[in-house]
Specification:
single chain; alpha/beta; 2-enoyl-CoA Hydratase, Chain A, domain 1; 8-stranded mixed beta sheet; 7-stranded mixed beta sheet
Length: 519
């Protein structure tokens, strides 16, 4: 065969590979409002930057008639490219080939790009759209999943791992995204579950749809499995690109600092009046975040889950940070099981990838009740405590209003190696609120007063004394637990100055194989 013919054959094979399972199946994918694997990669990566691996891979199975059905690329498109000029490894499952089901060779392709990403020190993005294991291959398919899981585990905390779910993701397929750092799901077109509606019906008798069992909003609001929800695939892909602007390439690099034209010393006078006079009245912590970060821009993580705590990426003078803030607008900002888990995992991610942590505190305590106790609030609250105490990145804590009881300790207190701990003049740092404290401290005195008016006057007097002592940050400051009491409108400047000072911070934990976080 002449070289011209060989080149022609190569071009034809490339075109054949790009068709995946064929034009009819591509049309079917488009009819569902979904992109193909290669179209998703084109949207995700910088134009013309994609370098594909293993385009000519085919499966080697012969059972159940598979020897008569072979498609180039075998159901997954893999390779590398760039996003904003930074190297990224990617794999995209192709639903047009055997419903995106995973075979032995399919898994090897994914493992290859994950291995390369670890060698190079670059993020991995997985675009999932798969019916699960290729049943015809049996245990070889299961082994393929386990090979991927092992690589997810080894890469954890070393390179950022991002997952997007743009179709079905069921059975063993769900565990790889669950092992990655962040998951994006698209509304109405994606779902995740370990067992589907038919099995659920057979085993439990429960009638439920795929959407209600494992749809995007279910996992965003109820289970907390997914971190971001997009209305469309395009929006989900743009979210992935946006997320990467806050992340380093790997755990040995610093997050990317960008140019900032928002003045460092910008004053926000509105912050001086944002805390209501009535300590029981809520306000929105997101308003505070918007006023202090660069250009009022931030990317909230798990927005629909445990809204009593806010986790978000933002920038201060172009420097990426992770923000954790109690939300007085929801359950008074109380800490519960879900909020503790949500914040703890986010802190551990930031710490793994050298992203400083800014904590905005307004917390009345932990949520009481048998439901929380039976659910293990002790263990889950300890996760948050553990995450803050273990983190060695720069930590700046600002107490805005309430900081009561054990929740005060948990929220990046000075004793958990908080580097800089500031408070607004409105801060209240105490074991508990005034009313509860008086009931404990003066219970006998109050009970001994028979006249109801006198009893009320006594209680009010003692509450006033307690508030004068604790409804301010000065006692904590007198012990050095608060480094400074700052004017709220100066908060942005004080945070940026703190981050600049802490840029060369060195802290470490004792040598160990790994910690035993209370899971």
């Amino acid at each position: 065969m002449a070289i011209e013919d060989k080149i022609k054959q190569l071009v034809e094979n490339r075109e054949k590979a790009k068709l995946g399972g064929g034009q009819k199946r591509i049309d079917s994918q488009h009819a569902k409002g979904k992109f193909t694997a290669r179209e998703r990669i084109e949207l995700l990566l910088d134009e013309g930057s994609f370098e594909e691996y293993d385009m000519f891979v085919v499966h080697h199975s012969t059972d159940f008639g598979l020897d008569k059905q072979k498609y180039l690329s075998d159901g997954v498109v893999t390779g590398h490219g760039t996003i904003d000029g930074r190297v990224i490894y990617v794999f995209a499952q192709d639903f047009t080939v055997f419903g995106g089901s995973l075979s032995e060779t399919f898994a090897k392709k994914i493992c290859k790009v994950m291995d390369q990403a670890m060698k190079v020190g670059a993020p991995v993005i997985g675009l999932n759209d798969s019916g699960g294991a290729r049943i015809q291959e049996g245990v070889q398919s299961l082994a393929g999943y386990a090979e991927i899981f092992q690589r997810n585990i080894m890469a954890s905390g070393v390179i950022p791992q991002l997952s997007a779910i743009f179709g079905p993701c069921a059975g063993g397929a769900v565990y790889s995204p669950a092992l990655t750092d962040f998951i994006v799901m698209s509304e109405k077109s994606s779902y995740m579950f370990v067992t589907g509606p038919k099995v659920v019906k057979t085993v439990t008798g429960e009638d439920i749809t795929s959407e209600d069992l494992g749809g995007a909003m279910v996992h965003a609001s109820k289970s907390g499995v997914t971190h971001f929800v997009s209305e469309t695939e395009e929006e989900g892909i743009m979210l992935l690109r946006k997320l990467l602007t806050y992340l380093p390439q790997n755990n040995l690099e610093e997050p990317p600092v960008t140019f900032c034209d928002d003045p460092i010393d910008r004053l926000e006078d509105a912050l001086n009046n944002i805390i209501p006079e009535n300590p029981n009245k809520p306000y929105d912590i997101k308003d505070v975040i918007e006023m202090i970060v660069d250009r009022s821009e931030y990317l909230e993580v798990q927005r629909h889950y445990a809204p009593n705590i806010v986790t978000a990426f933002a920038k201060f003078n172009g420097m990426p940070v992770g923000i954790i803030g109690n939300q007085p607008n929801y359950l008074a900002g109380v800490l519960d099981i879900n909020a503790s888990r949500k914040a703890a995992r986010y802190i551990r991610f930031c710490d793994a990838f050298n992203i400083p942590i800014i904590t905005l505190v307004d917390v009345p305590g932990f949520l009481p009740g048998s439901i929380q106790e039976y659910g293990g609030i002790i263990i889950h609250g300890a996760k948050l405590l553990f995450a803050y105490g273990e983190a060695t990145v720069p930590k700046i804590t600002i107490t805005l209003r309430k900081s009561y009881g054990g929740a005060h300790d948990v929220m990046s207190s000075k004793q958990l190696r908080g580097d800089i701990n500031y408070a607004w003049p409105s801060a209240e740092i105490a074991v508990m609120g005034a009313q509860g404290a008086i009931e404990v401290l003066y219970n006998k005195d109050i009970s001994s007063i028979e006249n109801e008016d006198e009893k009320e006057k006594f209680a009010i007097k003692k509450e006033k004394e307690y508030k004068e002592k604790f409804a301010n940050p000065y006692q904590a400051a007198s012990y050095g637990f608060i480094d400074d009491i700052i004017e709220p409108r100066n908060t942005r400047f004080r945070i940026i100055r703190g981050l600049q000072t802490l840029a060369t911070k060195k802290d470490s934990n004792p040598p160990k194989k790994h910690s035993n976080i209370p899971l």
